[in-house]
Structures are given as structure tokens and as C-alpha cells.
From TrEMBL:
Quaternary structure and interacting proteins, as annotated: Homodimer.
Entry annotated with the keyword Transferase: yes
Domain Aminotransferase class I/classII large: 18-405
SUPFAM superfamilies: PLP-dependent transferases (SSF53383)
Organismal lineage: Eukaryota, Metazoa, Ecdysozoa, Arthropoda, Hexapoda
Cofactors: pyridoxal 5'-phosphate
Protein name: alanine transaminase
Amino acid sequence: MHMLAFICDSVLGLVSYPPLFKDPSIPADAKKRARDILDGCKGGSVGSYSDSAGIEVIRRHAAEYIQRRDGGIPADWQNIILSAGASGGIKVLMALLRCPIDGKKPGVMIPIPQYPLYSATIAEFDMEQIGYYLDEANKWGLDIAELERSLNEARKTSAPRILVVINPGNPTGQVLSRSNIEDIIKFAQRERLVLFADEVYQDNVYETGSKFHSFKKVMMEMGEPYSKMELCSFMSCSKGYMGECGIRGGYAEIVNLCPDVRTMLLKCISAQLCPTTAGQAVLDCVVNPPQKGEPSYEQFEKEKEAVLESLRERAELVARTFNSIEGFSCNPVQGAMYAFPQIRLPPKALEAAKNEGKPADTFYAFQLLEETGICIVPGSGFGQRPGTYHFRTTILPQPEKLKEMLGLFKSFHEKFLQKYK
């Protein structure tokens, strides 16, 4: 039995269809996990509503996971809110800060390029989007001077409340260094911003020398006043080595939120009833994986490593191949699941795109799709510095498929350059 599948499928199967507990082929540790979840459900069934913030035992497991991840820094299960993917948690917490201040719209600072969930939610909540550019010349790092520029500009028209940081980055694939994170925390503290740490790719770090540091761990290790800052961090079972996107499981950890605000937050989410219990069960598999000494541990670790190692090889392959194509430049894919290469298009192509009324990167993406069947997302969908063109592509296809795709891509691009020379 495939152990990554075991983790989700066996536990999900058992909680959905308890007669499977009689099946001798299902390992004892899967049965124990499923039994703990069912014991935490009202009436012992995932068909009943859970508490609005999620099933208590799973929230406790999430807190233990965070504590292990952060080297023993305490996590309180009552600060964990389970959600429908990370998106559900991000939206409910952003909604807390959506009221105008002195007649100005509340502002949310987001990285450019960004993950479009943010721009869409900001628009939906009638908040102000404040873009800060990531530094492409420095492996998409986060420059504090750029944060300051962006904030000062925004203060003229809005009231900035939230600083969103995506680490590892989507769509840019960067992994922030510890010193960069410390500088970001100091900036947020100085400017009285609530930090939103989107850390859904925390398992996906590939580049030698890169390491994931959680914002909470760094903040706590910096001591006061930083350890007293308000922070919301997010995790999901859609990413990592799991990729269980459609089951919609995630959590938010809220740190140092004012008790009155926390009460209001719990009141708000009670109106949404609860995240799907199947999603909660799968999240439990992520935060409560097989431990040393359990029957599934060795197989699970072996398969998890194999998945992440294969992604590491693909991350290298994608960046290397794009850098070998004329007119392309691509930063190393340090983490997450995407590359975001820059492409320099010839003047004739820019002219042709203009005549069709399309951004040049969209024009390129459509031609690529029509001629090769390869689908990329144009950089204009994520935001980019004016006058530059990018696209996001994933590193997820299996290695053979990926090599084939990159080969097709290269020959398409050569023909494209010929056509618009």
C-alpha cells in the first residue's frame, strides 16, 4: 500500500465508512488516527457539524505539529482555527480588518508578483491593494526599502493594516533567509501592521543552503517587543508532498490577537458553521503523520522523501532549461512548486500583441497553448514591474513529461523568435 495514499485514503476511508475498521490490511496506526477523529466528532460521525473552529483533537494535533516544527516554542490549540484550505482562513481573518479608519479604506500590502486570491479578496472586501515589488535581481528577495516606498505611497490614500508575506513564494519560488524575515518583522512592528504569513509551502524547500523559517519562530526568538506582535500564519493540505487540493483542509494560527477580537472572530466563524469534516480529517494526517516506532513510519518517510526529492530535481531542471533558452532568464526555484521566468519579447511581437489588444505575455501564452497544448499563466495575471514580461509554470508534471514539455517549449520559442524577428 502506498503510504502517502495510506495517510489520507485509509484515514478518510475509515472515518467515512467505519466498517473498514474490521479490515486487517489497514495498519493499526491509521485505525488509531481515525478512531481519535471519530471520538472527537459529535455522535462519533463525520456527518455531524463540528465546532466552528474545527474538531478539538485535530486543533490540538495542529498545535503539537507547530511546536515540533518550531523547536519546542509553545503553540496553544485554542489559537488554531481549521478552515477550508488556507484560503478560508485567510479570508475570515482579512475580513476582521476591513473597516475604514478615519474615512480611509483599510490597506493590505501584498507582494508583486502575488497569488491572485489576495487581489480578489481585497477587491471583494472593498479594501485597498498595496503592492510591493519583490526583487527579481536578488532571487525574488524582499527589500525593506521597497516595503517603505510602497507603504508611504499608500498612506496618502489608505490606512495600511496588513502585511502579507508568501514564503516559500508563489508564483516566484523564493525562500526567505532568516535575516530577511527578521527585517520584515521589525518593519511590521515599527509600522503597526498585522503580519499574515502564508506558509503553505513550508515542506517544499529544494535549494541547498535554503531553509524554511516560520515567522512565528523567528518572532518569538527575537524577544520583546516582536514576540508580542499580532501574527496570523496559514498552512494547507493542498500543497507540500500531499497535494490533496480538492478536499479543502487548512488551518490558521493566530498569535497575540487581542482577547476581545478573538472572541469576535470566533463569533464571525460560527456563522459559517464549520469547515468540511473530510478536509479536517486530511489535515490531521498532515499535522499528525506516522511517528518513529509506528507500523507505517519508515514507509511513509521513504515515500515523502521520494516525492520531495523528485520535486527538487524538477525544480533544478526547469530553471536550468529556461536559462538555456534565448531571451529567457529564470531565478532558481528555491521552494514551492513554480518557476516565474522573465521573457524578453522582440518589438514585432509587442506590436502584434498591441494590435490584438492583449498584454504581450498573454499573446505569447495563447500562441504557446494553441501550437503545443502547453498552458502557462501570463505574468500579468500576478503583477510584474511595468515593461517586463513573465509567466508562471509549475514543476509538477512527472520528470519524463516535464522533459518532453520543456523540449516542445524550446522549439516553439525558437519558431516564435523567427516569426517576429
